[in-house]
Amino acid sequence: MGLSELRMFGRSGTPISPLTLGTMNFGEGTGGPPGAPTGADEAIRIIHAALDAGITAIDTADVYSQGESEQVVGRALRGRRDDVFLATKFHGQMSPNPAHSGNSRRWITQAVEGSLHRLQTDRIDLYQAHRPDYNTDVLETITTLNDLIRQGKILYYGTSVFTPAQLVEAQWLATTNHLIPPLGNQVPYSMLVRGNERDVLPIAQQYGLGVLAYGPLAGGWLSGSFVLDSGKPPARVHTLPGRYDISGPSSERKLLAADSLARLADKLEISLVDLAVGFALTHPAVSSVIIGPRSEEHLQAYLRAADVQLGETVLDAIDELVPPGTNFVERDAGAIVPSIEFAELRRR
Fold first, then answer.
1. Is the entire prediction scored with pTM above 0.70?
2. Taking the chain (348 residues) in consecutive chunks of 10 residues, what is each chunk's mean pLDDT?
3. In the chain, which end has fewer C-beta atoms inside a 10 angstrom radius, N or C?
4. Separate counts of helices (H) and strands (E) for the chain
5. Contact, 111 vs 62, CB < 8 A?
6. Distances (CA, A) of 271 to 1, 19, 161, 259, 308
7. Which whole-number Å values give the CA distances from 80 to 57, 201, 282, 293, 295, in the listed order?
């Protein structure tokens, strides 16, 4: 496969690399702020190394380190902006003021100006709603994004972790109101998070959506740390106990699956990272897989994985270990819909 084999981003006709550089870990200052362990200087080196290796797409968000990730990307792309498919996102709260968040016209028109300034660019290639906003009418959101395309501030727009119904609704509203429809969707997808195979990925193919698949290592579960009899728990178990608690029955099954996949990788004489990234790249709906390196060493491991090609026998073996369409826990879907999260919406 390799990075030189570009893929079309949905129906746009725009070619992008099979790997997209994700920047959630990047921030200013030595070591970066909490939640962004990679400082600005190292982050810029990683970005340049990724571009030099053939990566042509970068994904960030305004909320990553409260704008600092976008600032780092903007600095790194000086003189190279035209070579990059640049994607960012809005929705997350950007100040103590709760009005500085969401998918409303009022906030989007402010948020896009902030992102353009921090990224030091005159346009965003792909502007994405980071999460659904259940307080804002979808038509208001897509009308605003349609206007931004007309103004030349963004070229395409998309969504992230929208439900199947929301994806179809957005396409229908755009078509019936003579608006430019969404072009992309960003979803979690890995050997341990396969729920989107049931409906989201087929819908993306039906409507010609470009798909940026994030989390190929399933938030670290496929990094090689989550294996049985390793002698110590993964580091993140203590820092994010809600996500990495392995005591519950669902997480226990997930741990057993991660261990089995690690053993499959050993049998194939490849790394678990190779197996994980190669799997995510295999689905025909996936335009590009987002990688999130914290160091240049991590980046090199991801780059090597781009060359992995998995045959039918290996894919069948993965299906045996984790059946297609499987999510072990609800939160792995990226967002929990309110009707499931809040009991008062299900009870009188």
1. yes
2. 87 96 80 61 96 97 95 97 97 96 98 98 98 96 98 98 96 98 98 97 98 95 72 46 60 91 96 96 97 94 93 97 94 84 80
3. C
4. 13, 10
5. yes
6. 17, 18, 28, 13, 10
7. 12, 32, 29, 20, 21
